[in-house]
Amino acid sequence: MKDYLKYYRIRITALSPIYVGDGKLIGKKEYIRRNRRSRGWGTVEIPDPRKMLTCLRLLSCVQDFENYMLDQGGNVPDLYQWLQAQGISEATISSWIRYSMDAGDVFIGPRNGRNKGIESFQKDAYGKPYIPGSSIKGMLRTALLAWELGKQRESNSGIEKRVRRAVEGGRGKGDAFLRNQAEDLEVKVFHRPERNKENLKDAVNSVMAGLIVGDSDTISEKQLLLCQKIDYSCIGDKKKERAFPILREALKPGTEVFFDLSIDETTFPYRIEDIFAALDFFQELCYERFYKRFGRGRKESGLVWLGGGVGFLSKTVVYALFSPEDALYVTDQVFKKTVKTYKEHKHGNDLRLGISPHVCKCTRYQGELCDMGMGRIELLRGV
Q: How many CB atoms are located within 10 Å of the residue 318 CB?
């Protein structure tokens, strides 16, 4: 083993549902609901499409199935109801099932009875859930960048001015908005002119190349549940929840995720202790500047915010780069320039309310409102 390489085993325990998507959608006619509980639907079952189609072909139902899938009418039955109407037995249906998951609270209530599409969790070639190392490394990168910006705020005035000019300029274009300014920040913090002295921005100069984060171990499908996107606002004494017709496969609270992390000390200038210090700095920043205002989050060390559907703060460093007042203004301008529904979603009230964004990303689990994407990170061992 080379002395300059350090290896670590790390665990993240889900404290609330964590969603890491693969960009795919399970259509509302592509899953089965047949196990009903008194408070809602107990499980959702995902069939293996090859097994299901093979059986439907043997039963001469393929054309009827195609017609069903193409029917966009408002009173179309769900997949289980359609299969029942074809006279297909419960045992046959059960033989198709790849995995099932707890439906949680997503079908509870008079307005939530109908099927909705499901944004699926990241899975490997064998269909097993896992969290890509790139997702975890992105979380670490954001925390390290925020940590450094917090320590070097006085020397960042030039970049601050560039960001302010950009947000006050022309209309943004999605992900491209502020891209140049974001690259400048990363170059300032993470790049060293050692491999390509002529072009500091070249990716080969980034110290982050010395941080190697592996994909997580595979996770049992039994640890998946369905959760629904909920925007929560709490301004003064007024509390409001807005549920969206967006369902996601997510890890259940209590799920343990294990992964390996390696540090090349010849390239990466941070120790494992620095990484955890950066994570704690970012967690405290998120809590004090945002979650605290909603009466949410937790004021404790060792917490991380991981995955999709977590919200603006978990993926950005605006609140680390600017003072609270300036960060509020810049964040509001970012939404104004990039969000087409700025007025519809009442972002124009953010400056008056003193918080931007003015909603906290949540879901419901076992009847309780909970934050999306919160986990606890722990170092298990180092070599």
A: 22
